[in-house]
Amino acid sequence: MSEIQKKSTARAPFNNPDHDIVLRSVDGVDFHNFKLILSLVSPIFKDMFTLPQHESEPAVPVIPVAEHSTILYPLLLLSYPASGADPTFGTIDDARAVVEAAQKYEMDAILYRIGDLIVAHFLLARPLDVYAISCLTGWKHHARTAASRSLEIEGLVRPNSGFAASGMGAINASDYQRLLTYHYECGIAAQAVGKALEWLPSTPEISGMQMWGCIGCGRVAIGRRAIQIASFGKWTVTPWFEEYLDASGKELAARPCERTLLESASYNRAIAKARECLFCRIVVVHHHLHTFRTFYIAEVRKAIEKVELAP
């Protein structure tokens, strides 16, 4: 036996001297456990323990398993009563392996808890991985959460060589199509928000905003469309604001999330264009546009939340 394969005992809580069963990982780590606990969480182990034991076998049976200790530890920790801590996963591949092990041993009671931990650990940085694992495992709620987070990925609907590396290569065409359709429909919904502004509150602050109240650049209405503003009716907006709505709408269609509006190049262009108008410049249009963007973001969020990921 090589140095790597020499036996050792797992860390707490799997070093209990009163154990009645040992699970030995593929890398030679012994996990002290109890038949009753394993039988309650896994019908596979329950059936295994009902097999007759030969007289030559040790008093405490040792069962070799195919999993590495880094996979076995979080799997068993989730099955252990009052362990006092949630396991962590070193990588998304480790997390995927824990899911596969839980499925192998039919540990249905802990599978969704593993999903919660995967979302907590990897959703922000690896939404496509979380989506793929969720689809393969049947976690509909987690798949929806991951799909929503993936809206922040620019160019998601274009061919992407990183998909296979992210685990997306393991899902079927239907799940892949669901994600792309969801992204497209969210883009359509988000882009539509800026085409009519009836969702703005009907307050004096809104009615007095410079974008549709400018006596300089806003007076030239020829060739420009009128836009519904709150409940005030259709008003002609300034050229720079109309351009902002059109440009930000296209940005949202490609990347339908609130970060798009916060990071939008069209926002800075609108500020620069507004400065070219004496009246827009002197009434602190920055404040008006910032206020509008706050409402804009909230309405885009509402529009996206109404889009369903197909079952």
Automatic annotation (TrEMBL):
Gene3D superfamilies: Potassium Channel Kv1.1, Chain A (3.30.710.10). Residues 19-80 form the BTB domain. InterPro entries: BTB/POZ_dom, SKP1/BTB/POZ_sf. It comes from the Eukaryota. Pfam families: BTB (PF00651). This is Unplaced genomic scaffold CY34scaffold_8, whole genome shotgun sequence. It comes from Suillus luteus UH-Slu-Lm8-n1.
